[in-house]
Protein 1
Amino acid sequence: MRWSAVAPSNCCAIWSRAEPSRVSTSLASSPNGGPSGIPAGGLHIQFHEVEKRYGMRLALRGVTLSIAAGECVALVGHNGSGKTTLLKVAAQLTRPSRGKIAFQAGENSLSLEEVKSRVGMVGHHTLVYEELTAEENLIFFAKLFGLEDPAEKARQALQPVGLSGRATDLVRTFSRGMRQRLSIARALLASPGLLLLDEAGTGLDPEGQQWLGATIKRLRDSGCTILMSTHGRNETQGAVTRAIRLDGGKITHDSGAGGNPREILVMAAVRESGEEGAQ
Amino acid sequence: MATEAQSQTASSAAISAPSIVLVFLLLAAASYGALIWAPTENTMGLVQRIFYFHVSSAWSGFVSFILVFIGSVAYLRTRALKWDWLSVASAEVGVAFFTIVLVTGPIWAKPVWGIWWTWDARLTSSFLLWVLFVSYLVLRTLVEEPERRALVSAVFGIFATLDIPLVYFSIWWFRTQHPQPVIGDGGKLDSRMGWVLLLCWAATLGVMTVLIRLRYRLEALRAELDSYRMEASRDA
Amino acid sequence: MTLVRATGVILSKELRTEFRSRELLVTTAVFVLIVVVLFSFTFNPTSSESRRFGPGLLWLAFLFAGSLMLQSSFLREQTNDTLAALRLAPIDPFSILAGKMAANFLFLLLVEVILLPVFAVLYNVAILPVLTPLLLVLTLGTIGLAATGTVFSAVAAQARLRELLLPLLLLPVLAPVLIASTEATIGILRDPPELSLVWLTFLACFDVVFLTAAWMVGEYLLEE
């Protein structure tokens, strides 16, 4: 696998002082994967008749979906269509009201507890502590994930997101974009086999979004399974292998495991600009 | 289907006419026993008769709160909302009984001791229990989503009921260190009084059961209505 | 990651966060001070009256301050939804609660220890000769306060009117702690000092019962 396509070098210069090869090493560096010792590979997820109810509101209705290891899936749909809820169920942040979810790594099925150490999520909120420095935040989470040498892991994680220079600054002083980058670094700390992104591009400037797109592509190439909700914008389209459209908690379109996601993505982008135009 | 199961639950909670009649009879018998048949107490006179209802209400209140504990634990283990219905029904009925205790206490105290309230062990504990479960009910009004409300109430319900023996012991031991006139005692109980007390307790237990079932049924019906609404919105 | 280690990591994060700004500690300490001073206006603080009323008022001040301070335990995690970040980690959910309980215990104890000499001066009571038993009572009472308060702050975080709700839930449940701690403290401040084994054992029982209850059901409060 060639790593030269990390990012266009001018963009890379702003975001990382490390040479591409060093960056790629740190991401693919774990032949022993996470703490469980299973080789780092993408996770396979299976949703079976998953339903999620919040009081009277049905956020997800009977979603059955199988995502193979290494797929890069884009979830599109209006606000309130269930994208965030689906991601939360995958992250085990919320238990389905009905139905089940199951994970597999290679040939082995994983228990729900084992899976937690292999999942990284970037949510709507930044999920970092403002009163701590960037470095302290990452060391804290590295410890919670049981990583060895948390200080070193934290330092390594700050490089690709271009925050090494601000490692000892309080997150309170960061701009929205910097917090988002830190949040992404946090999600990638434990070399996840499954990455969940809930509109992770929000708050990033265009260069940041380009970097994010390149990072997603790189992760996908290294075998990580990616499930992300997007607004169908361009920065991440390059890496997407499958697109799923949700409406009212149900899957309405699915380009399928081997299919072409373009159509659904274009349709979503058109709908969005239509909505934006109308507003 | 969910709705069938739920309508079964609702209808199975319905009260049968014979049981209501039975409770009525028990109450009538208890009232007769307390007000007429039991001997008049020497020192306190007629007003002492309130003691039968005062004490049996407290005992039935306890039983209600134990049911809150059972409902709370069962909900956390099974996540079946019917246990939450049992908890809220029992809590409300328990609060009602302890209100009776707190009202009959002063009614008894005033003619006998000349004061409305003394901070004696039993009354103080009853008051605190009353406050505790009123807090439980207030908590429930402040959480809207049914599953979250059930979860949160179950946890608080468990803590509140575990607190009951601790409340009683601490107040009792405090009172033994700092004695005060005691309202709660009815003096020596002669055997007829004992029987009447048991009869009154049986009557209040009957009332408790009827009230809890009625309240439970109300929750069950509400849930059934909600599930119909949701079926409708699901198909929409 | 074991429960104890995860609790330790979270505890050190809580301590680091709080000691950086110290805003919660300072505010709580000032609040207790205000309450203690205001209470002193309600009676004549002669020596014998102080010994009778003082401890009760002191413990009331601690309880009020605690029920206000404990709010922030979970409210702080709501700013950037960091609670979700904690729940994503492969740790026992109870360790989140335990870490916060331990942190709250330490903060409250620190505030109490700081205010103790102030109380001694304002109410003319001698605490140095009986410092050890006093600290024992403070510790046992504060464990109960912190454990119950942390669990209830997780409860209140899911409801409306949470600033009012937490004291409403906490104070009745803690009534036994108030009684026991006050009585034990009064005994210690007597001349000669008496250490009431009954009250101390009672406080220990309270702590054990509620810590166990928190361990068994507390983590459900963190679910979504």
Protein 2
Amino acid sequence: MDLYLPIAEMSVNALVIILLGGGVGFLSGMFGVGGGFLTTPLLIFYGIPPAVAVASSATQITGASVSGALAYWRRGQVDLKMGLVLVAGGLVGAGIGQIGFRQLQKLGQIDVVINIAYVVLLGSIGSLMLRQALAELRRIRAGGSVGSGGRRHHPWVAALPGRMRFYKSGLYISPLAPLLLGAAVGMLTVVLGIGGGFIMVPAMLYVLGMAATAVVGTSLFQIIFVTAATTLLHATSSKSVDIVLALLLLAGGVAGAQLGVRAAQRLRPEKLRLALALLVLAVAIRLFVGLTWTPASLYSLDVL
Amino acid sequence: MKRRWLLPLLLAPLLGGAAPTMLISDLSQARIEIDTTFKGADLLVYGAIQYPAGARPDSAPDIAVVVRGPAQPVTVRRKARLAGIWINAEEQRFESVPGFYAVATTRPIADLADDRTTAIYEIGVDNLQLSPAGGDADRSFEAGLIAEKRRAGLFQEASGGVTITRGVLYRARIALPSAVPVGSYVAEIHMIRAGRVIASSQVPISIDKSGFERWIYVAAQENSLAYGLAAVAAALLAGLTASLLNRRD
């Protein structure tokens, strides 16, 4: 089923895009990650112009996260207060990221920067998560209980001034910590076209020391608002949001997300984290190989 | 663009003698509309050769059909290995690169006319005057640009792509890919005999988005904030709908 995309200015197979959205949506619901780190590279690989892929995948993440976030909300697994602090930081970060994005585009280095950023981020976070997940599995096998005594926030977080109580997260910490985290992720949302869940979730767990039950829901809550702001930024500056592409991705994505949430309820959280770590590492390795292998063509065109 | 046209048009009568040979040309579609189901189009360029006093020579002439799209400035970047990683190292800007360029000829371009003639009429992708800014010394960027455009189907060369029937009727089929840029196009038809262009004609083509595609595109360009808000609203609505439909547990 061929469909012409009005902003990407090309014809695509609608079925392929829907299935792509569905697969990514499943992961979104299961892990609480937006899945943008998969959608964007896959769309570029399919032939969608990178700027359109980045912008439209942000739009799709908004919709894909809504169904997931609502599912967690109904189970009372969203810390609203924590979420709002993260969103506030995220909006600031998105604004800063937009300025950086424009500069890199002018220099012609946006593609390389995006790829290196993906490799560094996914590689370091993936290995950190893998180490944690393996240690946890070993502890369980040795007869210990899940996460007992392992959960506490990073010493840096404790050093920040001012404290606030986040009941659902089980935290009494400075709001500056989640604010800064939100800003960092917001910046990445604009530049990389990702929700940032794969950074947010481990950072919430291992840096802030949040209760595992509230992590995924709160991460999805933050993603909705920051990706919505990103869509607006891209729509008004680069005009590269393809609403048809985003809705195609969503058609598959919303269905996939629901299935993902259900699958996640049945799986043990430590196994879930191990699976996510492996997935993140796999993408990092694939992108790293892409950076180092001699490309099929040394030349790239940029129509002004 | 306009000036390039003046020269052959002025020369055509001189080269052809007092009663010049004429080319009568037409297109299957003068206006191509890009709608939701657009996946490229086949453009048929056809016409007839009108000889002075109906005197048809024994051997058929050569015809070159060129279809070109609006010129755009393009930056070409070349990757180089830096610490094991391929990054964009050098760049070269070209001021006037046709968004689309296809040439169909009766014979290989090298056999049609000498290099000078094909360069003047810009027949063949290697004869395009792409106006490199500051000069592209070894033409390596130009070669890279042409290779990339060819890969995308936006530059085409088809030797043998023009068929001539009974020495009078000619036709060529040009395939426009789905990623063809919108704008004003022109089909240029040159008749070549003994290495000289003896008649030329041109027909304008317009390629534009229509209906839903146009509506979306115009909204995104002109009311970008409202478009962005609509995109967010549509995404949220799709998510909420799915969530409600699935609220069984």
